[in-house]
Amino acid sequence: MVVPVLLLVALSAIIPLMTVVNYSVQDTFGNNEFFWVGTEWFQEILQSERFHNALLRTLLFSGLILAIEIPLGIAIALAMPRRGAWVSVCLVLMALPLLIPWNVVGTIWQVFGRVDIGLLGHGLASVGIDYNYTQNTLDAWATLIIMDVWHWTSLVVLLCYSGLVAIPEVFYQAARIDGASRWSVFRYIQLPKIKRVLLIAVLLRFMDSFMIYTEPFVVTGGGPGNATTFLSIDLVQMAVGQFDLGPAAAMSLIYFLVILLLCWVFYTVMTSHDNETQNGARRAGGSR
Amino acid sequence: MACIELQQIAHRYSALPGEASAYAVQPLSQVWQDGGAYALLGPSGCGKTTLLNIISGLLRASAGRVLFDGVDVTGLSTERRNIAQVFQFPVVYDTLSVADNLAFPLRNRGLKIAEIETRVATVLQLLGLEHMARVRARSLNADDKQKISLGRGLVRTDVNAILFDEPLTVIDPHLKWKLRTELKKIHQQFGHTMIYVTHDQTEALTFAERVIVMYEGAVVQIGTPQELFEKPAHTFVGKFIGSPGMNVLPCATDAGNLLLAGKVIGKLPYSASGAGQLELGIRPEYVSLVATAAGNPDSLPAVITAVEDNGKHFVVRASINDMPISAIVREGAAIPESPRIILDPAKINLYRNSHLVTA
Fold first, then answer.
1. Which span out of A114-123, A147-156, A223-232 was modeled with the highest average pLDDT?
2. Residue A270 contacts B, CB cutoff 8 Å
3. Is the pLDDT of residue B20 over 60?
4. What confidence score (pLDDT) does residue A288 get?
5. Which of A9, A95, A129, B19 is at a distance of 20 to 30 A from A87, taking alpha carbons?
6. How close, in Å, is residue A259 to chain B by CA atoms?
7. Tell me, what's the pLDDT at A281?
8. Which residues of chain B neighbour A277 with C-beta distances below 8 Å?
9. Cα(A98)–Cα(B344) distance, rounded to whole angstroms?
10. Backbone angles phi, psi at B270, to 5 degrees
11. For chains A and B, what is the number of CB pairs under 8 angstroms?
């Protein structure tokens, strides 16, 4: 039973990954000639300032995205109606941004933010705010972050909402009996009950934002300067722009490992309570 | 603790447009004495839980008033009514420890830390949960979780009443008995007004001093377990309470005699004049079987359809002229092959249009 799955995973993931591993330890000057370089590319990438900067930018971007989208998503989900005609209206409105392709989102915001013709850019300029995402680093970042929040907060909302509607009414009734405040209800009933979907939301939003490529590529192209050159953009420049296949392959692998590591950290931190509970139960069981 | 008074309370849930909504609770007035142990008994969907939620304030009744010790609380929220309620399914705060769960309602009411600790310790001991005070509530089994739900009511010593909504549904059968006994002890010790909703007659009859039987949104009888057994006010009560329930058979009267299946089975126990369908009710416990008509002039021939052995006694299912009747025969007694049936005349109740006819 496991063999077909293994075959599928091998074909779809492991074999392509191995070709990248293959590139990462060799150098080529064309003509299909390859030279063994060992871990040289890895050392070069890990020590390069260009990589450090791109990594820091990407980390900062993902951090900001999570810090905004997760609380905002929870807040919107809490405010959404639980029953009635408005439920479907809200759900459709929430789902809309998720249906738009990445590059279209990028194009929308690229035009929207333009100072000459964009509604946002022109509007801001006309009230005297000096906004230009092609020249000002802060403006470029703000544009990308607002765009991502607009595009993806819905996902967090929908996940949290699904968790919230699954909470039986009796929990809220018990909270009223116990005289719990609105905050206590959130802290001790709603948050624990949506923790699992919230974990999925955090992981998805982290991975997605950490790998973001299309939208900044369309809107800022990595600029001004290198201000919005995230790891993905840097990687493509290196692999396609400069055709440095070896370093690009080494960077891909490091990139992949960083994502894996950070996901593991999120997962471990967010599920640590559960494990603690199991240990607690075992202790209690033993002392019976 | 308080005396709870319902004045002309009625409730209907909102219906779809163009559709008349039925009463979930029909207009009723009822006083629950301070410190009393009451059971609300009835089949599923009879309005028991609705009535309970009206008392606790989780639901606002469509009509009528709720009074606690003479003070109108109809408009007060659940929080301000100071009521404890235990639900059918255990509710615990997953991430909090057992002790913190018990302290939760006290902390919300801003009690002093020392006071909270004392009370929590008392309740932990009462429920036998001391050894798991620091364990997170999430990891407990359903029994212990339900104990915590109960404990959150018990820590509040000043509650006006503790309401139970079929609290033992998810509890293991062998623990049900134990918890019920504990509840009774707690009631005797603290004297809370307790209202216990259940569809299980054993639970109701063992827990309560007075049982309120509900049927289709209306109270059909209020009485002690003994009264419900001997003098059911409605054929529904007779059938619902007892295992098997009371036999209800159509009957007729003729010049002071009681007729069943066209035959005189004895004198009319009391006069039952009036219009409407007349039925007699008799508990299977008071139906006996004899072998011959000799010496038993009031007996009726019957056909046995089934005999169930339930361990303590036999339940004989028989029929008289196609009217089913059950009789309880003690274990070991002989069951005649073609028996005749005798009804104990002192134990016969008469019903007109399903309601008890009183002497």
1. A147-156
2. no
3. no
4. 34
5. B19
6. 29
7. 46
8. 136, 138-139
9. 77
10. -155, 160
11. 75
Residue A120's CB: how many other CB atoms inside 10 A? 17
Contact A106, A215 (CB under 8 A): yes
SS3 content of chain B, % helix, strand, coil (to 5): 30, 35, 40
Which of B26, B2, B30, B24 lies closest to B12 in space, CA to CA? B24
Are the beta carbons of B83 and A177 closer than 8 angstroms?
yes
Interface probe, candidates A171, A176, A178, A288, chain B, greatest B C-beta count within 10 A: A178
**Which of A133, A144, A121 is CA-nearest to residue A65?**
A144
Helix (H) or strand (E) segment spanning residue B197: strand B194-198
What angle separates helix A169-177 from helix B142-154, to the nearest 10 degrees?
Answer: 30
Query: How many angstroms separate the CA atoms of B191 and B89, rounded?
Result: 25
Contact B58 A273 (CB under 8 A): no
With CA atoms as reference, report the closest residue to B245 among B324, B173, B342: B324
Average pLDDT of chain A to the nearest whole number: 85
* Burial class of B14 by CB neighbour count within 10 A (0 to 12, 13 to 18, 19+): exposed
Q: Three-class SS of residue B293?
A: coil
Note if the bond before B244 is cis, omega within 30 degrees: yes
What's the confidence (pLDDT) of residue A164? 93
Sign of the torsion formed by the C-alpha atoms of B118, B120, B122 and B125: negative
What is the model's pLDDT at position B21? 61
Mean pLDDT of chain B: 86
Residues in Cβ contact with B278 at an 8 Å cutoff, skipping those fewer than 6 apart: B250, B251, B252, B253, B272, B350, B351, B352, B357
Residue A273: per-residue pLDDT: 63
CB nearest to B78's CB, from A176, A192, A280 = A176
ipTM of the complex: 0.78
How far apart are the CA of A261 and the nearest CA of chain B, in angstroms?
27
- Nearest CA to CA, how far is B108 from chain A (Å)? 6
Whether A281 contacts chain B with CB within 8 A: yes
For residue B197, give the nearest of B81, B12, B39, B19 by alpha carbon.
B39
> Smallest Cα–Cα separation from B165: which of B134, B197, B187?
B197
Helix (H, G, I), strand (E, B) or coil at B343: strand
Three-state SS across B134-182?
CCEHHHCCHHHHHHHHHHHHHCCCCCCEEEEECCCCCCCHHHHHHHHHH
Amino acid at B294: A
DSSP strand pairing (B300-301 vs B340-343): antiparallel
Distances (CA, A) of B35 to B222, B227, B251: 17, 21, 43
- Report CB contact under 8 Å: A177, B139: no
Distance from the A185 Cα atom to the nearest Cα atom in chain B, whole angstroms:
10
**Residue in A31, A30, A28, A58 with CA at minimum distance from that of residue A41:** A28
pLDDT digit string, tens, across residues B46-76 = 888 888 899 988 888 888 888 888 888 888 8
- According to DSSP, the β-strands at B287-290 and B340-343 are antiparallel
Q: Is A285 on the interface with B (CB under 8 A)?
A: no
CA-closest candidate to residue A250, choices A37, A30, A58, A59 = A37
Other Cβ atoms closer than 10 A to A255: 22
Nearest to A284 among B89, B93, B131 (CB): B131
Q: Are A77 and A157 in contact (CB under 8 A)?
A: yes
Entry pTM: 0.78
